[in-house]
Design a protein that fits this description.
It contains three helices and three strands, in the order ααββαβ. It has 81 residues and is of the alpha+beta class. The protein starts with a helix and ends in a 6-residue tail after the last strand.
Amino acid sequence: MTQRLWAALSEVQDPEMPINLVDLGVIYGVVEEDGVVSVDLTFTAMGCPATEFILDDVRERLMREPGVREVRVNVVWDPPW
């Protein structure tokens, strides 16, 4: 299932740049357990004006995947982007 989740995240575009979050390198990890998906991601800068848009887009896209009943996004700053 993890490959499918990575593929789904590759459909989420950065709202400020014409590139998806996976190719941008801001997704650090994706884990699924019993329908709960945890995503570790960072932002290109602290105070990124698109933070809420990105978090909402990640949650919305992953919730469309079969078997996903919850999405938890962990914002991490280490390692820095």
